[in-house]
Design a protein that fits this description.
Blueprint lengths: L10 H13 L7 H10 L1 E3 H12 L10 H13 L8 E3 H7 L1 H8 L5 H23 L4
Antiparallel strand pairs: 1-2
């Protein structure tokens, strides 16, 4: 896989999905608007942690007593260079912030249970930002 494309949604499959959905009679958002919403979606660090806690049921607020979860939340905060819990975070920055931790697990370091929790958190991050991007705007 080309590392330059990792984490990006290729244009062709998105167009194909839009065509299939339209053929089935589904209403589809204009692709450019949806794509820009997906890329530009942001929320505060506190909102993100609350949404992740709600989705994963892991105690993230206040600072977790679990060492692994504390490491995840501080990695996001530090790698995104946040100045306060009310600072805005973006999807790509949050996922990239967890990259070093994921690489560490893929190298065989750490507990398998924590690697599973990390993958669940990353999936939850994608779901939270997807929901924020597709939420109707006033």
């Amino acid at each position: 896989m080309n590392t330059g494309l990792r984490g990006r949604v290729p244009r062709f499959p998105m167009d194909a999905l839009v065509n299939i959905a339209t053929a089935m009679g589904c209403r589809v958002h204009p692709l450019d608007r949806l794509k820009s919403a997906w890329i530009n979606t942001s929320m505060t660090y506190t909102e993100l942690l609350a949404a992740l806690q709600n989705r994963t049921h892991y105690q993230l607020i206040p600072v977790p007593a679990d060492d692994f979860l504390a490491e995840v939340s501080t990695m996001i905060y530090n790698w995104c260079a946040l100045t306060s819990p009310q600072s805005q975070v973006e999807r790509t920055a949050v996922v990239n912030a967890l990259g070093p931790l994921r690489r560490r697990f893929m190298a065989g370091e750490g507990a398998a249970q924590d690697f599973l929790r990390l993958n669940q958190i990353i999936e939850a991050i994608d779901a939270v930002f997807d929901n924020a991007a597709t939420r109707p705007r006033p």
